[in-house]
TrEMBL record:
Positions of the FERM domain: 38-202
One GO MF term: protein tyrosine kinase activity
Lineage, highest ranks first: Eukaryota, Metazoa, Chordata, Craniata, Vertebrata
Gene: PTK2B_2
Residue segments, region Disordered: 12-32
Stored CDD domains: FERM_B-lobe
Entry-linked Pfam families: FERM_M, FERM_N_2
Gene3D superfamilies documented for this protein: 1.20.80.10, Phosphatidylinositol 3-kinase Catalytic Subunit, Chain A, domain 1
Source organism superkingdom: Eukaryota
InterPro entries (UniProt xref): FADK_N, FERM/acyl-CoA-bd_prot_sf, FERM_2, FERM_central, FERM_domain, Ubiquitin-like_domsf
Name assigned to this protein: Protein-tyrosine kinase 2-beta
This protein's UniProt keywords: Kinase, Transferase, Tyrosine-protein kinase
Amino acid sequence: MYEVMSGDTLAWKGASPRQSNTDPSHETEFTGDGGPVKILKVCFCTNNNLGKNFKLVKCDSTWKIEAIIRSILVSGRLGPNVELSKCYGLMLKHLKSEELHWLHPALTVGEVEQRYESHHVEAEWRYDLRIRYIPVNFLEKFKKDRSTFLYFYQQVRSDYMQSHASKVSDGMALQLGCLEIRRFYKDMNAKGLEKKSNFELL
């Protein structure tokens, strides 16, 4: 059972999508049946700017969106032992407008091209890997999948910084900054903090 999220992590919808109970390890192979080869640039939500971290996925027009997501997760780029693969989704975003589309896992690359990409120049589109579905009792589930938990944290943080950070009071900004410093430097001693590189990052 999952809760579905809208494009903005901070906004929630009430509907729960139907999810298959298949084991992720038995999902479809990543190879398609042929067709034109395409390289998709899929961006990640990390501590850096969204566009700076990505994976190039070589596929053909018959690949399903779920296979692209799975190929990224098994590559280890997001971290080890990703178990909650059903939490992830691909968002197709048009960079020169507000247009965005959550891509259904069963859609093929060819269908995405026909439905969406054909309306604008290919270079104006961006694929973002995002947490789309939140499992019920997600805190308990995330304890078993630290990679997904960290990715979810980074996504929420990124969405907050882009959409809400400029609207909060100075006092709230200071408190949030202190919490982030405490999280980021939780294992660092006073000597480590004196290093020039750490101080500049702080």
